Amino acid sequence: MNSDSDHELVTSLNRGDKAAFSELMTRHGPAVYRFAWALADEAHQADDLLQETFLVMWKRRHKIVLASESLLPWLLTTCRFTAYNSNRNSRARRTLPLDAAETATSTGAPASAIDELNWVREEIGALGPIDRQLIERCLVEGESYAAAAAALGMSPAAARKRIQRTRIHLGAARIENQ
């Protein structure tokens, strides 16, 4: 199958031909991997991006339209969007624990991040006891709203509303503080 063009391989792939999938991965995998490695926030993500790119190719095999004789541009575009999504998701999950202000300087965190972290801790400390417990349980410790509400003797809807109000209050206080 090695002499087949990408167009012929994509046509075979469209019919569910696993050998065509394998040939496309062998043919374009190294280039996609190098591209993924360049786009990844962390080097270990390159393998995942490569796998995800070819998984998307398999899932969307019926919709692939080649703009040229090669499938590589389609794969690189898919890899780029996969990397952007992965990087955005991992950045959104990166946090600095509220009790880490003392150690943040040793990890090289910017002074502005440490100042903001201290400000957030002070603002949470100034909340009423129920709101403070909700914030600590749900937003700091990651407990579900339902579990925190049950522990504090309220409905999940009431817990969500209190957290929403607290977020609005903190957002307004942050704007005033700037």
Structure, described:
There is one protein chain. The chain is mainly α and 178 residues long. It folds into two domains: 6-93, RNA polymerase sigma factor, region 2, helix turn helix motif (Rna Polymerase Sigma Factor, Chain: A, Orthogonal Bundle); 98-177, Orthogonal Bundle (Arc Repressor Mutant, subunit A). It has nine helices and no strands. It has helices spanning 6-14, 18-39, 45-59, 72-93, 101-104, 111-125, 129-140, 145-152, 156-177. The protein is elongated and about 70 Å long. The mean pLDDT is 84. Pfam families: Sigma70_r2, Sigma70_r4_2. GO terms for molecular function: DNA binding; sigma factor activity. Residues 24-91 form the RNA polymerase sigma-70 region domain.
Structural class comes to mainly alpha
Tally of strands: 0
Strand content: under 5%
The CATH homologous superfamily name of the largest domain equals: RNA polymerase sigma factor, region 2, helix turn helix motif
The amount of helix comes to over 70%
Q: What's the average pLDDT? A: 84
Low-confidence parts: none
Instruction: Write down the CATH class of the largest domain.
Output: Mainly Alpha
Number of individual domains: 2
- What string gives the helices and strands in order? HHHHHHHHH
Separation, N- and C-terminal Cα atoms? 64 Å
Overall geometry: elongated
Biggest sheet: strands, sense, closure?
Answer: none
CATH architecture of the largest domain, please? Orthogonal Bundle
Rg is 24 Å
* CATH fold-level assignment of the largest domain: Rna Polymerase Sigma Factor, Chain: A
Total helices: the number is 9
Family: Belongs to the sigma-70 factor family. ECF subfamily.
Protein name: Sigma-70 family RNA polymerase sigma factor
GO molecular function: DNA binding; sigma factor activity
Domain RNA polymerase sigma factor 70 region 4 type: 118-170
